[in-house]
Specification:
Blueprint lengths: L3 H12 L7 H11 L8 H10 L9 H13 L10 H7 L7
Helix pairs in contact: 1-4, 2-5
Length: about 100
């Protein structure tokens, strides 16, 4: 079940122009961008996301923190590596968003 943080995160990502179907992939890219340096600034996260192909997305600090909180509540300790199915299963987007 989606938490309040998840719902807020999904709304923010949709506002930023990310298609609902792409949100699990975006969250995975975000986590992978943060793997080596979890405490990096949100501007560096945006640079890494652009490198990974998300050129049209610019995260603000608040949205980045929502994503990190959401991942941590789902058990992603210290932004460790997880496979694509892990993200697809945990970020199923429901019509309520």
């Amino acid at each position: 079940m989606a938490t309040r943080v998840d719902r807020k995160l999904v709304c923010k990502l949709i506002e930023k122009g990310i298609d609902v179907a792409l949100i699990p992939g975006f969250i995975r890219s975000l986590a992978n961008a943060c793997l080596l340096t979890p405490d990096m600034s949100h501007s560096l996260v945006n640079k890494r996301l652009k490198y990974l192909g998300w050129e049209d997305v610019e995260l603000d600090y608040h949205t980045l923190q929502l994503a990190i909180d959401s991942l941590e509540t789902k058990g992603l300790s210290r932004l460790e590596y997880k496979s694509a199915p892990w993200y697809l299963h945990r970020f199923k987007i429901q019509k309520a968003y």
